[in-house]
Amino acid sequence: MDGGEAAAIENVREVAGEGVFSRHGHEDVSLARPRSLINLFGLASEYRRGDHATLLSFADALRPDAIDVVGDLRPDGLAILIASGDRPEALEDVARATGTTAIGHLRPADKLALIERQK
């Protein structure tokens, strides 16, 4: 690896809808759902090491063919919606661009339940 070595972490566990948690030496470390509402209108994860937390903001670009794909599905009478763990505000632009409904703040189990209700 250029520029350094990967940190030795142990006891790695993933919590669905929350993040990945571990230990590095004597400290807890994680990459997880933000604990605060600092980043209200974007996508973000929070890197935590011990008592220190850093908000990592990022953007998800809409696939170039997304609008065409949604348009192709409409004549089939399918219920088209976006089911996401992100904040609803972060989904508004994608929903508007694709002409779909977006539901946010969903955990993986919530998404599965939504799919079952749509059947």
UniProtKB/TrEMBL annotation:
Q: Which domain of life is it from?
A: Bacteria
Q: Which UniProt keywords apply?
A: Hydrolase
Give an example GO molecular function.
nucleotide binding
Do the record's keywords include Hydrolase? yes
For the keyword Repeat, the answer is no
Q: What is this protein called?
A: HAD family hydrolase
